[in-house]
Amino acid sequence: MAEKKINGQKPGTRKKTKITLSEFYERELPPLAEVVTFCNNLQFSLYADTTIVKSPEVVFRGVALSRNRLVSEDYLLNFRRSEGDLGVVIGTYNYSLPAATGAAANRDLEESDEDLLPLPPPKNERAPIGAVIRSRRSRRRYSGKPVSLQDLSTLLFHSAGITGRLEAENAPQSAVFGDQPYLDLHAAASGGGLYPVDLFIMALNVEKLPRQAYRYMPKSHALKPVPLTGPLPELTRLAQFLEIQAEKAGFLIGYVYNFFENSRKYGEAGLGFAFIEAGGIAAHVHLLATALGLGSCDVGGFSKRRFERLFNADGVTRHMIHLTVVGKLGDGV
Q1: For the chain, which residues score pLDDT lower than 70?
Q2: What's the CA gap between 48 and 152, in Å, rounded?
Q3: pLDDT tens profile 121-156
Q4: 87-328 to CATH, choices 3.40.50.300, 3.40.50.1580, 1.10.287.130, 3.40.109.10
Q5: Domain spans of the chain?
Q6: Exposed, middle or buried: residue 120 (CB in 10 Å: 0-12, 13-18, 19+)?
Q7: Handedness of CA 94, 100, 101, 107 (dihedral sign)
């Protein structure tokens, strides 16, 4: 028996329509969200396994009946599950050995000095910390005026720059590594002083800085251009900025986690420490932006894959985990 076509199409098939991302958010997302919410508007969802779009609410409502799980739930269920697990204890002890200390003391050898763009010396910001904390707000509207390279330098230094040294007491003595090895101390706290989170800058409107992606090199206090592998992506394809005026911002800050920098010591706890570190750096970013008269706002809905391509992170050992927008203040919040 021949299949009956409806409007020239076979049953079960739908015509594909190409629309822009902004059209999808404005026209398609509201009714789609209403339908998905209606289908799962139960104390325990019977449809949790069959709904194509599985929002976190769907997963929670179907938790007693469904095989669905949030990745974060699996992580927490397996996080430090036994006091008898000596893996982290052994890993931590190994990092006290001379070889590990010597490696940590010479991490700056990883920073190539080729193609570096030196940043101007950071300003010694003296704004009262209490007043800055009380006045900090997430700012989504920007003026479109360029951010000075001096302000960018000051913000990066006080967020993730090297602010001190610690003598490496048990590092091996070597003419290659030097006879006075030391560990660099950064502005933001880091589990074990391993600093696995790197900052990348997408310059949008910064004085004397071409529109491009850069990696911040704290040892040199400089920017290293990230090699371009194609045309720069449109901002609307990098994140769901919504009411954030990213097109008028000065720059974006991407936080990239180097998985092996701390997981070798802390195991699965390393991921938790990386998120804590990224939050600490972001807090410094927002406070410095406030002190400098800039606006800043965190963005959760970013395209991890597109940013990783932009920053030349492989998405296997190096992962984009956070995003902040910074710009000159405009009218409104």
Answers
A1: 1-14, 38-69, 84, 97-111, 170-180, 333
A2: 46
A3: 999 999 999 999 999 999 999 999 999 999 999 999
A4: 3.40.109.10
A5: 21-75, 87-328
A6: middle
A7: negative
With vertex at residue 234, the alpha carbon angle to CA 218 and CA 201, rounded to the nearest 5 degrees, is 5
Task: Dig out the tokens for 113 from the structure.
Answer: 């000095």
Alpha helical stretches, state H, 24-148? 29-39, 56-61, 71-77, 87-94, 98-105, 129-135
Paired sense of beta strands 251-258 and 182-186, if any: unpaired
173 φψ region: left (φ > 0), alpha (ψ -120 to 50), beta (else)? beta
Fill in the amino acid letter for 39. Answer: C
φ, ψ (nearest 5 deg) of residue 296: -145, 155
Closest CA to 255 of 275, 241, 228: 275
Residue pair 86/262 in contact by the 8 Å Cβ criterion: no
How do residues 220-277 score in pLDDT, each as one tens digit?
Answer: 999 999 998 888 999 999 999 999 999 999 999 999 999 988 888 888 889 999 999 9
